Every structure is written in structure tokens, then in C-alpha cells.
Amino acid sequence: MKFSFMTPSPWLQSLEGKHVLITGGSSGIGCAIAKEALSQGAFVTLVARSSTKLEKAEQNLDKDGATKHKISTKVADVGVYETLAKAIKESFEWRAVDVLVCNAGVGKTGLLDESRIEDLHAIIQTNLTGVVNTLHIGIPLMKQRSPQTPMSIVLMNSLSGLYFLYGNSVYTATKHALKGLGETLKLELMPYSIRISMVFPGYVDTPMLDDSGMEDDRDTLQMIKATTFYNRHQAKTPEQVAKYTLEATKNGTFLVTSKFGGLMLSTLSRGPMPAGTLGRALVELILYIPIRLLSFLAFFYVHYVTGHRKNKKC
Predict the structure, then answer these.
(1) Which residues, listed in sequence order, are joined to residue 47 by a DSSP beta bridge?
(2) CA distances, 19 to each of 46, 100, 167, 184, 223 (Å)
(3) Are 19 and 42 in contact (CB under 8 A)?
(4) Rounded alpha-carbon distances, angstroms, from residue 274 to 94, 153, 266
(5) Between the CA atoms of 226, 228, 229 and 235, what dihedral angle is there, to the nearest 10 degrees?
(6) What is the number of alpha carbons within 13 Å of residue 209 lying toward its C-beta?
(7) How many angstroms from the chain centroid is the CA of residue 42?
(8) Pick from 85, 91, 94: nearest CA to 137
(9) Whose CA is closest to 241, among 16, 24, 36?
């Protein structure tokens, strides 16, 4: 493994002429990644369940008609293996995929025992099974290319994959599972010149955040604010996430976060995987003990808040 002090050498020199395939590409972060990739000269394939949303996304991406030949859309549910396999294989036949972005995801806020089992299964089906399906189909096709051709897989995760999101226990579980999946694939795919980038954004102003029901229950919302400092007005835009996601992908960065909170959580949660640069490793080493002490204070604060909520209900 090659180390630099602070800035890694580029893995992909540019996205010019590259093919970026994005699941969950019809809105939110996925559509923003497509827009940013197009602006950098890439070809894009958007995969999503809704043909109506895909048509709208394509129109928004190609307002002047200049990039229509660079956009392909495929209707498929990542949770349905057969239709997804057809969509991905057709995309590879159009152009070999250089960057595979696993972005499709759903969430539904609610305490585990108070949630509909159908909603919990849907979260697992999209957030975990959908990613496994995408990778199981896409990786063999990527391996067929020359090992001298650098390629990337992006796993769009969440800060809850390094921490937790109160009232979203199954969603949190799927994101922790993605982290383990990415860590293992990083090693398995090294011989094939395929890099893994795991992206852990915080709150992002997307339709998924609107659909999650996070603000529907006042008590749960208060707990989310207390444990994760949730503030809708401070949520990142999809465009901001798309920009740093693609920059990290071009650099071949493995664990990608934003803001100081992301640095703190990645320092605590990195495990045995080494930092990408020596400078980042030193920063994490210096921060580890103070952050670990801070985590004790955070735990007692969370314990107090949850206990207070329980007493109020009683």
C-alpha cells in the first residue's frame, strides 16, 4: 500500500469519457452525482424504480440538449435481482462502467417495536440487499476489464454507519453492515484495480429526508436532536455531497466524511483499516484519546436524556 503524507495521488486522473452508473439516480444525491459527473465530461447511467422520476431527472440534467447522448436511464428496483441484472448488463454493453455508485436507500423513522414489519423489511431490502445485488452483478463485469484499468465502487453510507440514529435502528444496522461489506471488499478487489470509496454524509436535504417521517413524532424528533444535533437548516445539499464524493472517488479515498463530526466518528470507528495518508493517521492518533474521553460524556448525556424521556412517559 502506498502512503503519502497528506494528499493521496489520484486514482482516476479525471472523469472525462468515463462511465458512471448510479443506483437511486433519479433524485437527491444520486441525481446530483450524475449532474456533477456530466459537468466533468462523464457518461452516466441512472437506475431507479420510477420511470416518471427518471424522465424528469433526465430532462433536468439535459436542459439544453447538449448531453443527451451521454445519459442513459434504466428502470429497475435494486431489491429485484432479475430486473436489476438486465439493467446493469445493458449498461455495461452500452459502455464499460468505470465508477459504480451504490446510492439507492430508504429510511423510515420509528422505534423498532412500534414500526410496521413491512417497513423494516423494505429498509433491509433496499439498503443492504439492494447493494449486495448491485455488487454481485456489477463486480464480475468490472473484473473482465484489464487489471491495468483503474475503476471505483462508491458505497453511499451515512454517519449512522459510524454512530447511530435514534428511532432508526434497522436503518442504522444496514449502514453498519455496509461498512463491514466495504472493508472486506477493499481487500478482495485490490488485485483487480477496483477501489472502494465509502461515503458517510451527515444529514442531507433530499426527498429521502422528507419521506423518512423524522419530524412526524415530536418525542422522537427531540431525541434525534439531542443525540445527533439534528438541524434541518444545517443539512448539506445534494450538490455539496456529490462534489466531495466524486473528488474522493478520483483520489481513491476509502473512508469519506465531512465536517469535524465526521472526522471524530471515523477516528473512533476506523478499526484495523489504515488511514489513506500518513498525515491523516497522525491526526487520528492525536485525536483518539480526547475523542474517546468525550464519548464517555456523550454516553452519559444520552443516558440522561433517554431516562428523562422514559420518566415523562411514565
Answers:
(1) 23, 74
(2) 11, 9, 37, 25, 42
(3) yes
(4) 37, 19, 11
(5) -150
(6) 19
(7) 20
(8) 85
(9) 36
The burial class, CB within 10 Å (0-12 / 13-18 / 19+), for 122 is: middle
Where helices occur in 144-253 by DSSP H, the ranges are 169-188, 207-211, 218-228, 238-251
What are the Cα distances from residue 72, in Å, to 45, 118, 221? 5, 32, 39
Going residue by residue through the chain, which has 314 residues, state the pLDDT in tens, using 9 for 90 and above.
444 445 567 999 999 999 999 999 999 999 999 999 999 999 999 999 999 999 999 999 998 888 899 999 999 999 999 999 999 999 999 999 999 999 999 999 999 999 999 999 999 999 999 999 999 999 999 999 988 899 999 999 999 999 989 999 999 999 999 999 999 999 999 999 999 999 999 999 988 777 777 777 788 888 888 777 788 888 899 999 999 999 999 999 999 997 777 888 888 888 788 887 888 889 888 988 888 888 777 777 767 666 655 555 55
All three cell numbers of 82: 432479475
Report the first-to-last Cα separation within the chain, whole angstroms: 56
Give the integer Cα–Cα distance in Å for 277 and 274.
Answer: 8
Helices (H), 95-159: 117-124, 130-143
